[in-house]
């Protein structure tokens, strides 16, 4: 790492951190070094490190608020990037396929295809005879989308970052400010730490998926069931749990049974010989969530750290993959904006 160049440190090697690091690396190729610091990496298996456990796919969501519209723009940008990767990097773990939504209690935006929902690639409304039987479904749609093998994809991103000259450091930080101790040449830290170093709004959401066309279904009781294939023979992720503030690390047999029962009703062809699932393993992870949602903002520091800034990008819960490339582009924009702001800000 060059001693005469400024350095941007990215904290966290989840999907947001990896994507942000690559995007910053591309923007600052000739002017700054990028250092990625993390406790957990794609080869690790820890409940604290959620990205490799994820069943990751894209699905359109109607947007009716300014924040939702921003996230929809992030999702659209990610969709375009995933399409390019699937065509240019066949080993990256991303594959395009048909996606299905089956909704028991759809909002008007689903029914009327408003809020950007109808703009999804290739979206068509399904006839009732194409709905799952006896599931209380009143709306269905089909569209083109992506699904990915999350462990393969995260490893791909890390390898891409390293091959482009990115540096990595395995370390456990207690605060984001601690990253500035690497030297005076560090003036920007990007905080993709997941739970945000004690952020009072951050909390874990426990998810449990027994691994065994991407389908998303809203059930009459408001719960969700999803079936997400992992390309490159990675099996299929079946899920549908969301348990806020639950720190339990082991899978619950009753949760597995309920999730598999709903998936079998929703899409019977997924069953193996004898009408049974071939369950490879149970996955339990902690999605990093926040009360007010994704934190995406720049914090200008004072006192000892005057002139330095932290760009916060964490707390996406289950939307990290779907928003990743849009969030990364916004992180780059914020870094450039902060750099200009500091340059013209008078010293006090």
From TrEMBL:
Record key words, sorted: FAD, Flavoprotein, Oxidoreductase
Keyword Transmembrane helix: no
GO cellular component, one term: cytoplasm
Keyword Nucleotidyltransferase: no
Signal peptide: none
Binding site for FAD: 50-51
Pfam families: DAO
GO biological process, one term: D-amino acid catabolic process
Protein name: FAD dependent oxidoreductase domain-containing protein
Source organism of this protein record: Exophiala bonariae
